[in-house]
Amino acid sequence: MMTSATTPTKTTDAAHEAAPKHMRSAVPVQTRNDRFHSTDVADFPAVTGREAGWKYTPVARLAELISGVLDGAPYVYDVTTAPGVTTGWVGRDDARIGAAGKPEDRASANAWSAFEQALVVSISGEDAKEVTLTRSSLGDAPRAAHTIIETAPFSRATLILQNTGQAHLAENVELVLGESSQLTLVTVQEWDDDALHVATHFATIGRDAKLKHIAVTLGGGVVRLNPAAHLAGAGSDAELFGAYFADAGQHLEQQVYVFHDAANTRSRVTYKGALQGENARTVWIGDVLIGPKAVGTDTYEQNRNLVLTDGARADSVPNLEIETGDIVGAGHASATGRFDDEQLFYLQSRGITEDEARRLVVRGFLSEIVQQIGSPALQERLQAAIEAELEAVTVATR
Questions:
Q1: 391 HSE (CA, 13 A, CB side)
Q2: Do 178 and 204 touch, CB atoms closer than 8 A?
Q3: Which residue has the higher pLDDT, 208 or 357?
Q4: Residue ranges of region Disordered (predicted)?
Q5: Residue 63 above 90 pLDDT?
Q6: Helices 354-370 and 376-392, interaxial angle, to 10°?
Q7: What is the pTM of this model?
Q8: In the beta sheet, which residues pair with residue 143?
Q9: What is the strand order of the sheet 222-231 is part of?
Q10: Which residues contact 52 (CB under 8 A, 6 or more apart)?
Q11: pLDDT value of residue 98
C-alpha cells in the first residue's frame, strides 16, 4: 500500500522562493496525483528531455509547441448536426474552463496560456446520437487550441473528433460528464506525415456516468496524446482504448492516467499498437491511482505492441498505485513482441501467402480496438486505412 507524499516544510530561503513553483517541494513527488500543475506556462521550466514525463519524447522536434509562441485564435471546423448537440466559441473567462483539470507539463500549459477562445460542445437529451467534428485546415503554423465537451445528466452521445491535413498543434480538451450520462469520444489522428500534435485530454466523470475514450492514431510525424480520466463520482466508469500504427520515422506516444477518487468505480484501459520501418517509435505509459476514498474499485490496464520489422521500437510502462486495501481488483499487463510463428504457419498451411498472412494477423490484432467505436461507417473506414498502412510497406519477415 502506498501513502501520500509528506507535506514539505516551509522555508524562507531566497533561492527557494526564486525557484519555479513546481521545484519548491522539499520532497520528491511520491504519487501520480501529487504532480505540480498550473495553467501558466511561466511556472514550468524549460524541457530538457531528462524529465520523467518527457524522457521518451523527441522534445527537439516539438520545441515550438513546448515553448514557442502559439496562435490561439479560433479556427475553422466542420461539424455534423444532431438534436441536443450545440457548438460555439466562448471567452477565457467562461466558468467551465478548468473544470476538468489543469496542465501538468509545459506543452499543455503553453497551449492553455495561448488560446484566445475555447470551443464548447454541449450535449443533452437521452436519445443516443452521433456527431463528427472535423479539423482539416489548421495549417503548418504553431497553434494552440482549447475544447470543452460537456454532457448533461442522463444524456447519451458518440462524438468523433476527426483530425486530418497539416497541423502544428498543442491543445487541451476538457470533458465534463454529468450524472448518469454516457459519452463515447473517438479521436482520430490521420494528420499529414510531417504534422506535430501534442494534446492532453482531461475528463471528470460524475456519479454513475460512463466515458468510453478511443484514440486511433495513424498519421503525423510526432503525436503525443495524454488522456487523463478522473472518476470523481460514485459508480462512475471509464474505458480507455487506443490503436496506433507507426511507420518509418513516426513517433506516436500515449500517456494515460486514470484516477479512482470515488467509491465503487470501474476502469479498463486497453491500448494496442503495430510498428514497421526504420525508426518507427511508439510509447505507452499507463498510470492508475486508486485513492484512499475509492473503496470497491475495479480496474485493469494493458498494452500490447506488435513489432513488424527491424529498426522499430516500442516502449511500454504500466504503473499502479493503491492507497486503500478495500478494492474489488486491480491489475496491469504489458507485452511487446513479433509475430506468432504458429499463427503464420496455420494460415500458410491453408494456402494463404506469407505477406497476406501477416496482414491478416495485424488486422485482427488492431480490430479489437476499432470494433469498440460503435460507428459502423467509421469502423469500416479505419479498417481500410489500417489495410492501406499494411500495403504501403512490405512487411519484412523475421
A1: 6
A2: no
A3: 208
A4: 1-26
A5: yes
A6: 150
A7: 0.90
A8: 71, 169
A9: 85-91, 117-123, 142-151, 168-177, 196-205, 222-231, 251-260, 281-290, 313-322
A10: none
A11: 97
CB burial of residue 308 (10 Å; 0-12, 13-18, 19+): buried
Please compute Rg for the chain using Cα positions: 21
**Per-residue cell: 75:** 479556427
Locus of grid cell 452521445: 157
| Amino acid making up residue 167 | A
- Cα separation, 282 vs 251, in Å, equals 6
**All three cell numbers of 338:** 513479433
Q: How far is CA 200 from CA 30, 35, 81, 91, 219, in A?
A: 22, 15, 26, 20, 18
CA 356 to chain centre: 31
Dihedral in degrees, nearest 10, Cα atoms 33, 294, 324, 238: -70
Contact 115, 91 (CB under 8 A): no
SS in 3 state form for the chain? CCCCCCCCCCCCCHHHHHCCHHHCCCCCCCCHHHCCCCCCHHHCCCCCCCCCCCCCCCHHHHHHHHCCCCECCCCCCEECCCCCEEEEEEECCCCCCCCCCCCCCHHHHHHHHHCCEEEEEEECCCCCCEEEEEECCCCCCEEEEEEEEEECCCCEEEEEEEEEECCEEEEEEEEEECCCCEEEEEEEEEECCCCEEEEEEEEEECCCCEEEEEEEECCCCEEEEEEEEEECCCCCEEEEEEEEEECCCCEEEEEEEEEECCCCCEEEEEEEEEECCCCCEEEEEEEEEECCCCCCCEEEEEEEEEECCCCCEEEEEEEEEECCCCCCEEEEEEEEECCCHHHHHHHHCCCCCHHHHHHHHHHHHHHHHHCCCCCHHHHHHHHHHHHHHHHHCCCCCC
- The cell numbers describing 23, all together, are 521545484
Question: Which residues touch 190 (CB under 8 Å, ≥6 apart)?
Answer: 162, 163, 164, 218, 219, 385
In the block, which residue shows the cell 497476406?
356
Confidence (pLDDT) at 392: 67
- Looking at residue 20, what is its pLDDT? 52
| Whether the predicted pLDDT of 1 surpasses 70 | no
- What region, left, alpha or beta, does residue 374 occupy, with left being phi > 0 and alpha being psi -120 to 50 degrees? left
Per the listing, cell 507524499 goes with 5
- Averaged pLDDT score across all residues of the chain: 90
Q: Which of these, 225, 175, 216, lies nearest to 197 by C-alpha position?
A: 225
The span from the CA of 67 to the CA of 108, in Å, is 10
